Amino acid sequence: MTTVRVAGVGLTPFGDHGDRAGRDLFAEAAAAAIDDAGIDRGAIDRLDYGNFMGALAEKQGHQAPLMAEAAGLDCPATRYEEACASAGVAVKAAVEAIRAGTADLVIAGGMERMTSLDTGAVTDALSIAADELYEVRAGMTFPSAYALMAQAYFDRFGGGREDLAHIAVKNHANAVPNEYAQYQREITVDDALDAPPVAEPLHLYDACPITDGASAIVLTSDEYAATHDLDAPVAITGVGQGGDRLALQDRDAIAETPAATAAAETAYADSGITAADIDVAEVHDCFTIAEVMALESLGIADSGEGILAARDGITTPDGDCPVNLSGGLKAKGHPVGATGGSQIAELTRLLRGDHPNSEYVANATTGVAHNAGGTVASAVVHVLEVAE
Amino acid sequence: MTDENPTVDDQPASYDEWLDAIDAGEGFYLESPAGVGSLPPRRVCPETGSTDLTHEPLPEIGTIETYSVVHVATPGFADDTPYISAIADFGPVRITGVVRGVDPETIDDLVGDPVTVSVGTRATTDDRVVVLSPPES
Protein backbone atom coordinates (compact mmCIF):
# COMPACT_ATOMS: atom_id res chain seq x y z
CA MET A 1 0.00 0.00 0.00
CA THR A 2 1.38 3.37 -1.00
CA THR A 3 2.06 6.18 1.43
CA VAL A 4 -0.18 9.18 0.84
CA ARG A 5 1.63 12.50 0.86
CA VAL A 6 0.34 16.05 1.21
CA ALA A 7 1.74 17.77 -1.87
CA GLY A 8 0.14 21.15 -1.30
CA VAL A 9 -2.34 23.08 0.82
CA GLY A 10 -4.50 26.13 0.22
CA LEU A 11 -6.85 28.21 2.34
CA THR A 12 -8.90 31.34 2.01
CA PRO A 13 -8.85 33.74 4.92
CA PHE A 14 -11.64 32.70 7.30
CA GLY A 15 -14.26 35.33 8.13
CA ASP A 16 -16.98 37.36 6.45
CA HIS A 17 -16.58 37.28 2.68
CA GLY A 18 -19.55 39.53 1.93
CA ASP A 19 -21.19 38.79 -1.37
CA ARG A 20 -18.57 36.41 -2.74
CA ALA A 21 -20.01 33.18 -4.10
CA GLY A 22 -18.94 29.91 -2.53
CA ARG A 23 -17.52 28.71 -5.82
CA ASP A 24 -15.15 31.69 -5.82
CA LEU A 25 -13.94 30.84 -2.31
CA PHE A 26 -13.20 27.24 -3.24
CA ALA A 27 -11.49 28.32 -6.47
CA GLU A 28 -9.17 30.54 -4.41
CA ALA A 29 -8.27 27.74 -2.00
CA ALA A 30 -7.81 25.19 -4.79
CA ALA A 31 -5.57 27.53 -6.79
CA ALA A 32 -3.41 28.10 -3.72
CA ALA A 33 -3.13 24.34 -3.08
CA ILE A 34 -2.26 23.59 -6.71
CA ASP A 35 0.36 26.34 -6.69
CA ASP A 36 1.77 25.08 -3.38
CA ALA A 37 2.02 21.57 -4.80
CA GLY A 38 3.63 22.71 -8.05
CA ILE A 39 1.49 20.38 -10.15
CA ASP A 40 -0.38 20.54 -13.43
CA ARG A 41 -4.07 20.86 -12.59
CA GLY A 42 -4.87 18.72 -15.63
CA ALA A 43 -3.27 15.73 -13.93
CA ILE A 44 -5.73 15.74 -11.03
CA ASP A 45 -7.80 12.55 -11.00
CA ARG A 46 -10.70 13.54 -8.74
CA LEU A 47 -12.15 16.08 -6.32
CA ASP A 48 -13.44 15.02 -2.89
CA TYR A 49 -15.34 18.01 -1.53
CA GLY A 50 -17.08 18.74 1.77
CA ASN A 51 -20.05 21.04 2.29
CA PHE A 52 -22.84 21.03 4.84
CA MET A 53 -25.43 23.78 4.41
CA GLY A 54 -24.96 25.10 0.88
CA ALA A 55 -28.52 24.20 -0.04
CA LEU A 56 -29.69 26.63 2.67
CA ALA A 57 -26.99 29.32 2.58
CA GLU A 58 -26.67 29.66 -1.18
CA LYS A 59 -29.61 27.60 -2.42
CA GLN A 60 -27.01 25.53 -4.24
CA GLY A 61 -27.08 21.77 -4.32
CA HIS A 62 -24.98 19.49 -6.54
CA GLN A 63 -21.96 21.52 -5.58
CA ALA A 64 -19.07 19.19 -6.37
CA PRO A 65 -19.02 19.55 -10.18
CA LEU A 66 -19.57 23.28 -9.77
CA MET A 67 -16.53 23.52 -7.51
CA ALA A 68 -14.44 21.42 -9.90
CA GLU A 69 -15.44 23.76 -12.72
CA ALA A 70 -14.63 26.84 -10.63
CA ALA A 71 -11.22 25.39 -9.78
CA GLY A 72 -10.50 24.56 -13.41
CA LEU A 73 -10.57 20.83 -12.86
CA ASP A 74 -11.71 18.35 -15.49
CA CYS A 75 -12.33 15.32 -13.32
CA PRO A 76 -15.05 13.47 -11.41
CA ALA A 77 -16.15 15.34 -8.28
CA THR A 78 -18.13 14.19 -5.26
CA ARG A 79 -19.63 16.14 -2.38
CA TYR A 80 -19.51 14.66 1.12
CA GLU A 81 -21.93 15.74 3.85
CA GLU A 82 -21.27 14.69 7.42
CA ALA A 83 -22.22 17.96 9.17
CA CYS A 84 -19.08 19.61 10.58
CA ALA A 85 -16.99 16.58 9.60
CA SER A 86 -17.83 16.91 5.89
CA ALA A 87 -14.31 17.82 4.76
CA GLY A 88 -12.80 15.26 7.11
CA VAL A 89 -14.64 12.43 5.41
CA ALA A 90 -13.78 13.96 2.03
CA VAL A 91 -10.07 13.83 2.88
CA LYS A 92 -10.46 10.27 4.15
CA ALA A 93 -12.09 9.25 0.87
CA ALA A 94 -9.21 10.81 -1.06
CA VAL A 95 -6.62 8.99 1.04
CA GLU A 96 -8.42 5.70 0.53
CA ALA A 97 -8.65 6.23 -3.23
CA ILE A 98 -4.92 6.78 -3.51
CA ARG A 99 -4.18 3.80 -1.28
CA ALA A 100 -6.47 1.65 -3.40
CA GLY A 101 -4.58 2.68 -6.50
CA THR A 102 -7.60 4.25 -8.17
CA ALA A 103 -6.09 7.74 -8.14
CA ASP A 104 -2.61 9.27 -8.07
CA LEU A 105 -3.42 12.91 -7.55
CA VAL A 106 -6.48 14.18 -5.71
CA ILE A 107 -7.79 17.50 -4.41
CA ALA A 108 -9.78 17.29 -1.19
CA GLY A 109 -11.23 19.97 1.02
CA GLY A 110 -14.43 21.90 1.35
CA MET A 111 -16.24 25.20 1.49
CA GLU A 112 -18.97 26.85 3.50
CA ARG A 113 -20.82 30.15 3.16
CA MET A 114 -22.53 31.10 6.43
CA THR A 115 -22.59 34.90 6.73
CA SER A 116 -25.07 35.03 3.88
CA LEU A 117 -27.65 34.09 6.54
CA ASP A 118 -28.54 36.09 9.65
CA THR A 119 -27.77 34.62 13.09
CA GLY A 120 -31.22 33.10 13.51
CA ALA A 121 -31.11 31.44 10.12
CA VAL A 122 -27.59 30.11 10.77
CA THR A 123 -28.77 28.70 14.13
CA ASP A 124 -31.65 27.07 12.28
CA ALA A 125 -29.36 25.70 9.57
CA LEU A 126 -26.82 24.27 12.01
CA SER A 127 -29.57 22.57 13.97
CA ILE A 128 -30.35 20.25 11.08
CA ALA A 129 -27.28 18.25 12.09
CA ALA A 130 -29.30 17.16 15.15
CA ASP A 131 -32.27 14.78 15.33
CA GLU A 132 -35.13 16.82 13.88
CA LEU A 133 -37.90 14.95 15.72
CA TYR A 134 -36.44 14.41 19.16
CA GLU A 135 -33.98 17.29 19.49
CA VAL A 136 -34.78 20.23 17.20
CA ARG A 137 -38.55 20.07 17.83
CA ALA A 138 -37.74 19.83 21.56
CA GLY A 139 -35.92 23.16 21.45
CA MET A 140 -32.34 21.98 21.12
CA THR A 141 -29.89 24.22 19.26
CA PHE A 142 -26.30 23.45 18.26
CA PRO A 143 -24.91 25.51 21.18
CA SER A 144 -27.44 24.10 23.65
CA ALA A 145 -26.55 20.55 22.62
CA TYR A 146 -22.92 21.20 23.57
CA ALA A 147 -24.15 22.99 26.70
CA LEU A 148 -25.97 19.78 27.68
CA MET A 149 -22.71 17.90 27.13
CA ALA A 150 -20.79 20.48 29.18
CA GLN A 151 -23.24 20.30 32.08
CA ALA A 152 -23.09 16.50 31.99
CA TYR A 153 -19.28 16.68 31.97
CA PHE A 154 -19.17 19.06 34.94
CA ASP A 155 -21.59 16.85 36.82
CA ARG A 156 -19.56 13.72 36.18
CA PHE A 157 -15.97 14.92 36.30
CA GLY A 158 -16.02 18.41 37.84
CA GLY A 159 -14.63 21.59 36.33
CA GLY A 160 -16.43 24.74 35.37
CA ARG A 161 -16.65 27.83 33.22
CA GLU A 162 -13.26 29.19 34.22
CA ASP A 163 -11.56 26.02 33.00
CA LEU A 164 -13.32 26.41 29.66
CA ALA A 165 -12.30 30.08 29.53
CA HIS A 166 -8.63 29.05 29.52
CA ILE A 167 -9.26 27.07 26.34
CA ALA A 168 -10.78 30.12 24.63
CA VAL A 169 -7.91 32.33 25.81
CA LYS A 170 -5.33 29.83 24.49
CA ASN A 171 -6.93 29.46 21.09
CA HIS A 172 -7.44 33.21 20.62
CA ALA A 173 -3.75 33.79 21.44
CA ASN A 174 -2.75 31.08 18.96
CA ALA A 175 -4.77 32.79 16.22
CA VAL A 176 -3.03 36.15 16.53
CA PRO A 177 -0.19 35.47 14.04
CA ASN A 178 -2.29 33.25 11.73
CA GLU A 179 -3.04 35.22 8.58
CA TYR A 180 -6.05 32.99 7.82
CA ALA A 181 -7.74 33.37 11.22
CA GLN A 182 -11.04 35.18 11.67
CA TYR A 183 -10.13 36.59 15.09
CA GLN A 184 -6.46 37.60 15.27
CA ARG A 185 -6.87 39.06 18.73
CA GLU A 186 -6.35 37.94 22.29
CA ILE A 187 -9.00 37.73 24.97
CA THR A 188 -8.73 37.34 28.74
CA VAL A 189 -10.32 34.87 31.11
CA ASP A 190 -12.47 37.70 32.43
CA ASP A 191 -13.60 38.56 28.89
CA ALA A 192 -14.82 34.99 28.51
CA LEU A 193 -16.46 34.84 31.92
CA ASP A 194 -18.21 38.19 31.46
CA ALA A 195 -19.51 37.48 27.94
CA PRO A 196 -23.28 37.11 27.45
CA PRO A 197 -24.76 33.62 27.76
CA VAL A 198 -25.71 31.68 24.64
CA ALA A 199 -26.82 28.40 26.20
CA GLU A 200 -25.68 28.11 29.80
CA PRO A 201 -23.16 27.06 30.90
CA LEU A 202 -21.73 28.16 27.52
CA HIS A 203 -21.28 31.87 26.83
CA LEU A 204 -20.24 33.81 23.75
CA TYR A 205 -16.51 33.10 23.96
CA ASP A 206 -17.11 29.38 24.40
CA ALA A 207 -18.52 29.28 20.87
CA CYS A 208 -16.89 29.36 17.46
CA PRO A 209 -17.94 32.23 15.18
CA ILE A 210 -20.05 32.21 12.02
CA THR A 211 -17.54 31.91 9.22
CA ASP A 212 -17.13 31.82 5.45
CA GLY A 213 -14.12 29.99 4.05
CA ALA A 214 -12.64 27.23 1.96
CA SER A 215 -9.84 24.70 2.25
CA ALA A 216 -8.06 22.54 -0.30
CA ILE A 217 -5.24 20.03 -0.08
CA VAL A 218 -3.48 18.15 -2.85
CA LEU A 219 -2.80 14.52 -1.98
CA THR A 220 -0.65 12.16 -3.96
CA SER A 221 0.99 8.76 -3.83
CA ASP A 222 4.57 8.27 -2.73
CA GLU A 223 5.42 7.06 -6.22
CA TYR A 224 3.82 10.01 -8.00
CA ALA A 225 5.59 12.46 -5.71
CA ALA A 226 8.94 10.78 -6.41
CA THR A 227 8.55 10.50 -10.17
CA HIS A 228 7.33 14.10 -10.49
CA ASP A 229 9.88 15.53 -8.07
CA LEU A 230 7.24 16.97 -5.74
CA ASP A 231 8.34 18.43 -2.44
CA ALA A 232 5.90 16.70 -0.08
CA PRO A 233 7.57 16.05 3.27
CA VAL A 234 4.36 15.34 5.22
CA ALA A 235 2.37 12.12 4.85
CA ILE A 236 -1.08 11.07 6.05
CA THR A 237 -0.21 7.75 7.65
CA GLY A 238 -3.41 6.97 9.52
CA VAL A 239 -7.14 7.45 8.96
CA GLY A 240 -10.07 6.45 11.13
CA GLN A 241 -13.77 7.15 11.35
CA GLY A 242 -16.26 6.47 14.12
CA GLY A 243 -20.01 6.78 14.53
CA ASP A 244 -22.62 7.01 17.27
CA ARG A 245 -26.38 7.43 17.70
CA LEU A 246 -27.44 10.82 16.30
CA ALA A 247 -29.44 12.10 19.28
CA LEU A 248 -27.70 12.79 22.57
CA GLN A 249 -30.59 11.18 24.43
CA ASP A 250 -29.82 7.86 22.74
CA ARG A 251 -26.08 7.78 23.53
CA ASP A 252 -24.52 5.54 26.14
CA ALA A 253 -22.55 8.56 27.36
CA ILE A 254 -23.32 12.28 27.08
CA ALA A 255 -20.07 13.54 28.63
CA GLU A 256 -17.84 11.51 26.30
CA THR A 257 -17.39 11.12 22.56
CA PRO A 258 -16.92 7.42 21.81
CA ALA A 259 -17.17 8.00 18.04
CA ALA A 260 -13.98 10.05 18.22
CA THR A 261 -12.35 7.47 20.45
CA ALA A 262 -13.10 4.79 17.87
CA ALA A 263 -11.82 7.00 15.06
CA ALA A 264 -8.59 7.65 16.97
CA GLU A 265 -8.02 3.99 17.77
CA THR A 266 -8.47 3.07 14.11
CA ALA A 267 -6.22 5.87 12.88
CA TYR A 268 -3.48 5.10 15.42
CA ALA A 269 -3.53 1.39 14.52
CA ASP A 270 -3.42 2.34 10.84
CA SER A 271 -0.34 4.49 11.31
CA GLY A 272 1.32 2.42 14.04
CA ILE A 273 1.46 5.25 16.57
CA THR A 274 0.16 5.63 20.10
CA ALA A 275 -1.22 8.72 21.80
CA ALA A 276 2.18 9.19 23.44
CA ASP A 277 3.71 9.84 20.01
CA ILE A 278 1.54 12.90 19.29
CA ASP A 279 3.55 16.12 19.18
CA VAL A 280 0.81 18.50 18.06
CA ALA A 281 -2.93 18.34 17.37
CA GLU A 282 -5.68 20.28 15.66
CA VAL A 283 -8.98 19.33 17.29
CA HIS A 284 -12.60 20.20 16.67
CA ASP A 285 -13.27 22.93 19.25
CA CYS A 286 -16.58 24.21 17.89
CA PHE A 287 -17.23 24.91 21.57
CA THR A 288 -14.63 24.97 24.32
CA ILE A 289 -16.11 21.84 25.91
CA ALA A 290 -15.62 20.03 22.59
CA GLU A 291 -11.84 20.47 22.89
CA VAL A 292 -11.98 18.85 26.33
CA MET A 293 -13.77 15.76 25.08
CA ALA A 294 -11.58 15.61 21.96
CA LEU A 295 -8.41 15.50 24.08
CA GLU A 296 -9.81 12.60 26.07
CA SER A 297 -10.91 10.67 23.00
CA LEU A 298 -7.48 11.17 21.41
CA GLY A 299 -5.68 10.01 24.54
CA ILE A 300 -3.89 13.34 24.95
CA ALA A 301 -5.65 13.63 28.31
CA ASP A 302 -7.05 10.92 30.55
CA SER A 303 -10.78 10.66 31.11
CA GLY A 304 -11.94 13.56 33.28
CA GLU A 305 -8.65 15.45 32.97
CA GLY A 306 -9.08 17.18 29.62
CA ILE A 307 -10.87 20.04 31.35
CA LEU A 308 -7.60 21.14 32.98
CA ALA A 309 -5.25 20.66 30.01
CA ALA A 310 -5.24 24.30 28.87
CA ARG A 311 -5.33 25.74 32.37
CA ASP A 312 -2.37 23.54 33.39
CA GLY A 313 -0.41 24.46 30.28
CA ILE A 314 -0.31 20.99 28.73
CA THR A 315 -1.94 22.13 25.48
CA THR A 316 -0.56 25.67 25.32
CA PRO A 317 2.15 26.46 22.74
CA ASP A 318 4.96 25.75 25.22
CA GLY A 319 3.21 22.69 26.66
CA ASP A 320 3.86 19.00 26.12
CA CYS A 321 1.31 18.79 23.31
CA PRO A 322 0.25 22.10 21.75
CA VAL A 323 -3.37 21.94 20.60
CA ASN A 324 -5.00 24.20 18.02
CA LEU A 325 -1.96 26.30 17.21
CA SER A 326 -4.00 27.56 14.25
CA GLY A 327 -6.45 29.18 16.66
CA GLY A 328 -8.83 26.27 16.27
CA LEU A 329 -12.42 26.57 15.20
CA LYS A 330 -12.85 28.85 18.19
CA ALA A 331 -10.68 31.72 16.92
CA LYS A 332 -9.57 30.76 13.42
CA GLY A 333 -13.21 30.19 12.51
CA HIS A 334 -15.45 27.33 11.50
CA PRO A 335 -16.75 27.34 7.93
CA VAL A 336 -18.42 24.03 8.63
CA GLY A 337 -17.82 22.11 5.41
CA ALA A 338 -14.24 23.37 5.06
CA THR A 339 -12.96 22.74 8.57
CA GLY A 340 -11.71 19.16 8.21
CA GLY A 341 -9.53 20.17 5.26
CA SER A 342 -8.35 23.30 7.03
CA GLN A 343 -7.10 21.23 9.97
CA ILE A 344 -4.99 19.08 7.61
CA ALA A 345 -3.66 22.20 5.89
CA GLU A 346 -2.69 23.82 9.19
CA LEU A 347 -1.05 20.65 10.55
CA THR A 348 0.89 20.28 7.32
CA ARG A 349 2.16 23.84 7.60
CA LEU A 350 3.06 23.30 11.25
CA LEU A 351 5.02 20.11 10.48
CA ARG A 352 6.69 21.59 7.37
CA GLY A 353 7.84 24.57 9.37
CA ASP A 354 6.10 27.30 7.38
CA HIS A 355 3.27 28.09 9.81
CA PRO A 356 3.53 31.28 11.90
CA ASN A 357 3.41 29.05 14.99
CA SER A 358 5.83 26.37 13.73
CA GLU A 359 8.46 27.61 16.17
CA TYR A 360 6.53 25.91 18.97
CA VAL A 361 6.76 22.49 17.30
CA ALA A 362 10.16 22.75 15.60
CA ASN A 363 11.05 19.13 16.36
CA ALA A 364 7.59 17.69 15.87
CA THR A 365 7.21 14.64 13.65
CA THR A 366 3.65 13.49 14.41
CA GLY A 367 0.40 15.43 14.35
CA VAL A 368 -3.25 14.46 14.67
CA ALA A 369 -6.35 16.09 13.20
CA HIS A 370 -9.73 15.48 14.88
CA ASN A 371 -12.85 16.52 12.97
CA ALA A 372 -16.32 15.91 14.42
CA GLY A 373 -19.85 16.02 13.01
CA GLY A 374 -22.78 17.41 15.02
CA THR A 375 -22.45 16.40 18.65
CA VAL A 376 -19.88 13.81 17.52
CA ALA A 377 -22.29 11.29 16.04
CA SER A 378 -19.54 11.11 13.44
CA ALA A 379 -15.82 11.70 13.80
CA VAL A 380 -12.75 11.46 11.60
CA VAL A 381 -9.15 11.32 12.81
CA HIS A 382 -6.09 11.65 10.58
CA VAL A 383 -2.47 11.04 11.61
CA LEU A 384 0.13 13.15 9.82
CA GLU A 385 3.84 12.38 10.02
CA VAL A 386 6.97 13.93 8.64
CA ALA A 387 8.06 11.33 6.09
CA GLU A 388 11.66 10.45 5.37
CA MET B 1 -40.46 -8.90 1.25
CA THR B 2 -39.41 -11.63 3.66
CA ASP B 3 -40.52 -12.17 7.21
CA GLU B 4 -37.31 -10.49 8.35
CA ASN B 5 -38.18 -7.29 6.53
CA PRO B 6 -41.09 -5.49 8.18
CA THR B 7 -43.81 -3.95 6.02
CA VAL B 8 -45.38 -0.55 6.52
CA ASP B 9 -48.05 -2.22 8.65
CA ASP B 10 -45.37 -3.45 11.04
CA GLN B 11 -44.19 0.05 11.99
CA PRO B 12 -45.03 0.26 15.68
CA ALA B 13 -45.89 3.97 15.72
CA SER B 14 -45.09 7.38 14.28
CA TYR B 15 -43.61 10.32 16.17
CA ASP B 16 -46.97 12.12 16.16
CA GLU B 17 -48.71 9.05 17.54
CA TRP B 18 -46.10 8.97 20.31
CA LEU B 19 -46.84 12.63 21.13
CA ASP B 20 -50.61 11.93 21.03
CA ALA B 21 -50.11 9.06 23.46
CA ILE B 22 -48.13 11.20 25.90
CA ASP B 23 -50.77 13.92 25.64
CA ALA B 24 -53.43 11.34 26.52
CA GLY B 25 -51.48 10.18 29.55
CA GLU B 26 -50.59 6.92 27.81
CA GLY B 27 -46.92 7.50 27.04
CA PHE B 28 -45.01 4.51 25.78
CA TYR B 29 -41.68 3.36 24.47
CA LEU B 30 -40.72 0.46 22.24
CA GLU B 31 -38.92 -2.54 23.65
CA SER B 32 -37.10 -5.38 21.95
CA PRO B 33 -36.94 -8.90 23.46
CA ALA B 34 -33.50 -8.06 24.92
CA GLY B 35 -35.11 -5.28 26.95
CA VAL B 36 -33.62 -2.44 24.90
CA GLY B 37 -35.82 0.66 24.84
CA SER B 38 -36.22 3.06 21.92
CA LEU B 39 -38.65 5.65 20.58
CA PRO B 40 -40.66 5.71 17.33
CA PRO B 41 -40.57 5.73 14.38
CA ARG B 42 -38.57 2.54 14.73
CA ARG B 43 -38.76 -0.74 12.83
CA VAL B 44 -35.60 -2.30 14.15
CA CYS B 45 -34.05 -2.28 17.60
CA PRO B 46 -30.97 -0.07 17.12
CA GLU B 47 -28.85 -2.29 19.35
CA THR B 48 -29.99 -5.86 18.67
CA GLY B 49 -31.55 -5.62 15.21
CA SER B 50 -34.71 -7.32 16.41
CA THR B 51 -37.91 -6.38 14.58
CA ASP B 52 -40.05 -7.71 17.43
CA LEU B 53 -40.81 -4.38 19.10
CA THR B 54 -43.61 -4.05 21.65
CA HIS B 55 -45.28 -0.98 23.18
CA GLU B 56 -44.45 -0.67 26.86
CA PRO B 57 -45.76 1.97 29.27
CA LEU B 58 -43.35 4.86 29.82
CA PRO B 59 -42.35 5.21 33.49
CA GLU B 60 -44.24 8.15 34.99
CA ILE B 61 -41.23 9.75 36.64
CA GLY B 62 -37.89 10.53 35.03
CA THR B 63 -34.75 12.17 36.36
CA ILE B 64 -32.99 15.17 34.80
CA GLU B 65 -29.58 14.05 33.60
CA THR B 66 -28.36 17.33 32.11
CA TYR B 67 -29.81 20.74 31.24
CA SER B 68 -29.06 24.12 29.71
CA VAL B 69 -30.68 27.54 29.91
CA VAL B 70 -31.06 28.63 26.30
CA HIS B 71 -30.76 32.35 25.56
CA VAL B 72 -30.16 32.25 21.79
CA ALA B 73 -32.73 30.06 20.07
CA THR B 74 -33.69 29.08 16.56
CA PRO B 75 -36.39 31.32 15.03
CA GLY B 76 -38.97 28.65 15.91
CA PHE B 77 -38.29 29.17 19.64
CA ALA B 78 -37.33 32.88 19.56
CA ASP B 79 -40.18 34.01 21.86
CA ASP B 80 -39.61 31.12 24.27
CA THR B 81 -36.23 32.39 25.52
CA PRO B 82 -34.90 32.04 28.07
CA TYR B 83 -35.99 28.43 28.43
CA ILE B 84 -34.53 25.31 29.97
CA SER B 85 -33.61 22.47 27.65
CA ALA B 86 -33.00 19.14 29.37
CA ILE B 87 -32.50 15.44 28.86
CA ALA B 88 -34.32 13.26 31.39
CA ASP B 89 -33.67 9.59 32.09
CA PHE B 90 -36.87 7.54 32.18
CA GLY B 91 -35.07 4.21 32.59
CA PRO B 92 -35.41 2.32 29.29
CA VAL B 93 -35.23 5.59 27.31
CA ARG B 94 -34.11 9.19 27.73
CA ILE B 95 -36.31 12.08 26.57
CA THR B 96 -35.29 15.61 25.54
CA GLY B 97 -37.70 18.42 26.33
CA VAL B 98 -38.30 21.94 27.56
CA VAL B 99 -38.53 22.21 31.35
CA ARG B 100 -41.55 24.14 32.60
CA GLY B 101 -42.62 24.88 36.14
CA VAL B 102 -39.09 25.97 37.02
CA ASP B 103 -37.90 29.59 36.67
CA PRO B 104 -34.90 29.60 34.30
CA GLU B 105 -33.63 32.82 35.89
CA THR B 106 -33.31 31.41 39.41
CA ILE B 107 -32.39 27.73 39.05
CA ASP B 108 -29.41 26.34 40.91
CA ASP B 109 -28.82 22.76 39.80
CA LEU B 110 -31.50 20.59 38.23
CA VAL B 111 -29.43 17.43 37.76
CA GLY B 112 -31.13 14.55 39.55
CA ASP B 113 -34.47 16.33 39.91
CA PRO B 114 -37.59 14.24 39.16
CA VAL B 115 -39.82 15.19 36.21
CA THR B 116 -42.90 14.00 34.37
CA VAL B 117 -43.37 14.29 30.61
CA SER B 118 -46.28 15.99 28.86
CA VAL B 119 -47.01 17.82 25.62
CA GLY B 120 -47.24 21.61 25.50
CA THR B 121 -47.15 24.39 22.93
CA ARG B 122 -44.30 26.74 22.12
CA ALA B 123 -44.66 30.43 22.93
CA THR B 124 -43.33 31.30 19.47
CA THR B 125 -45.55 29.09 17.31
CA ASP B 126 -48.48 26.72 17.73
CA ASP B 127 -46.20 23.71 17.31
CA ARG B 128 -46.26 21.05 19.98
CA VAL B 129 -43.25 20.56 22.22
CA VAL B 130 -42.24 17.88 24.70
CA VAL B 131 -42.43 19.33 28.22
CA LEU B 132 -40.67 18.09 31.34
CA SER B 133 -42.12 19.29 34.64
CA PRO B 134 -41.66 18.70 38.35
CA PRO B 135 -44.22 16.13 39.54
CA GLU B 136 -47.31 17.63 41.17
CA SER B 137 -46.97 17.34 44.90
TrEMBL record, chain A:
Signal peptide: none annotated. Pfam families: Thiolase_C_1 (PF22691), Thiolase_N (PF00108). Keywords: Isoprene biosynthesis. Residues 6-222 form the Thiolase N-terminal domain. Residues 241-385 form the Thiolase C-terminal domain. One of its GO terms (biological process) is isoprenoid biosynthetic process. GO terms for molecular function: acyltransferase activity, transferring groups other than amino-acyl groups. The keyword Lipid metabolism does not apply. InterPro entries: Thiolase, Thiolase-like, Thiolase_C_2, Thiolase_N. NCBIfam families: PRK06064.1. This is Thiolase domain-containing protein.
TrEMBL record, chain B:
Residues 32-57 are annotated as: Disordered. It comes from the Archaea. Pfam families: OB_ChsH2_C. Residues 57-118 form the ChsH2 C-terminal OB-fold domain. This is Nucleic acid-binding protein. It comes from Halonotius roseus. The lineage of its organism: Archaea, Methanobacteriati, Methanobacteriota, Stenosarchaea group, Halobacteria.
